C-alpha cells in the first residue's frame, strides 16, 4: 500500500478450492496453500504526554507478543477464471480453484500501544520491553490501560459467577441425592 509505513507487517495469501462430493453431489470449499509472511523491526514506545524526548521503551521482537494490534490495510479477492478446458478437467478431477484471498495487516507508525512484559535496562541507558524469561505472557494491545484492565476484570467476574453457580448447583444436587438415599433407608427400616 503506497504511503503506508509500519513497524510490523503480516501478509497472508490463501487459496480457496472447491471439491466435488460424489455422495451428496455438492461442491465443498476448503482452504489450501496458506502462506504467511511476517516482517518487523524493533520500535520504541513513547508517552504522548512526555516533555522529555529521551524517555522511551524499546520493544524487542514484537512478533513474539500476543494481542491484536494489527490493522488491515489491504484486502483483495481474486476469483478464478474458468474456460472450457478447465470445466472438463474440473469434472474429471472433482476439484476446481475458487479464489485467492490476499490480506495485508500492519502496525502503523504512530499507533497507540500498551505493552506488558519484562522491562530490562540495557547498557544502563535504554529500557527494553521483551518476553519474560519465566514463560509468562508478553502482550501488546492497541487499547489504553484502563479498558484493557476493565475487559479482564469483567472476564474474571464472569468466571467467578459461573464458578459460584456451578458450586451451588452441585451442592444442591448432592444434598438432594443424600436426602433421597437416607429417605429410602428410613422407609425400608420402618
TrEMBL record:
Reactions catalysed, as given in the entry: S-ubiquitinyl-[E2 ubiquitin-conjugating enzyme]-L-cysteine + [acceptor protein]-L-lysine = [E2 ubiquitin-conjugating enzyme]-L-cysteine + N(6)-ubiquitinyl-[acceptor protein]-L-lysine
Record carries keyword Plastid: no
Gene Ontology MF, one: ubiquitin protein ligase activity
Record-annotated membrane-spanning stretches: 158-182
Main location: membrane
Topological category with respect to the lipid bilayer: Multi-pass membrane protein
Sequence ranges assigned to domain E3 Ubiquitin ligase MUL1-like in this UniProt record: 18-172
Gene Ontology terms: cellular component: membrane
Protein name: RING-type E3 ubiquitin transferase
UniProt KW Repeat keyword: no
Keywords carried by this UniProt record: Membrane, Metal-binding, Transferase, Transmembrane, Transmembrane helix, Ubl conjugation pathway, Zinc, Zinc-finger
Annotated localization: Membrane
GO biological process, one term: protein ubiquitination
InterPro entries: MDM2_MDM4_MUL1 (IPR051652), MUL1-like (IPR022170)
EC number(s) stated in the UniProt entry for this protein: 2.3.2.27
Pfam annotation, one family: GIDE
Protein species of origin: Nothobranchius korthausae
Amino acid at each position: 500500500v503506497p504511503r503506508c509505513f509500519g513497524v510490523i507487517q503480516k501478509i497472508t495469501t490463501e487459496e480457496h478450492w472447491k471439491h466435488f462430493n460424489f455422495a451428496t453431489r455438492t461442491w465443498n470449499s476448503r482452504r489450501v496453500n496458506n502462506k504467511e509472511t511476517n516482517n518487523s523491526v524493533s520500535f520504541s514506545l513513547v508517552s504522548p504526554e512526555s516533555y522529555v524526548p529521551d524517555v522511551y521503551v524499546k520493544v524487542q521482537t514484537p512478533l513474539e507478543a500476543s494481542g491484536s494490534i494489527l490493522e488491515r490495510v489491504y484486502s483483495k479477492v481474486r476469483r478464478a477464471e474458468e474456460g472450457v478446458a478447465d470445466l472438463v478437467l474440473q469434472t474429471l478431477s472433482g476439484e476446481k480453484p475458487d479464489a485467492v484471498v490476499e490480506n495485508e495487516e500492519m502496525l502503523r507508525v504512530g499507533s497507540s500501544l500498551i505493552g506488558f512484559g519484562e522491562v530490562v535496562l540495557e547498557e544502563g541507558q535504554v529500557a527494553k520491553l521483551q518476553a519474560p524469561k519465566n514463560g509468562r505472557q508478553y502482550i501488546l494491545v492497541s487499547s489504553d490501560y484502563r479498558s484493557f484492565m476493565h475487559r479482564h476484570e469483567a472476564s474474571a467476574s464472569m468466571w467467578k459467577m459461573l464458578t459460584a453457580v456451578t458450586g451451588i448447583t452441585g451442592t444442591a444436587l448432592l444434598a438432594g441425592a443424600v436426602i433421597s438415599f437416607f429417605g429410602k433407608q428410613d422407609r425400608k427400616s420402618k
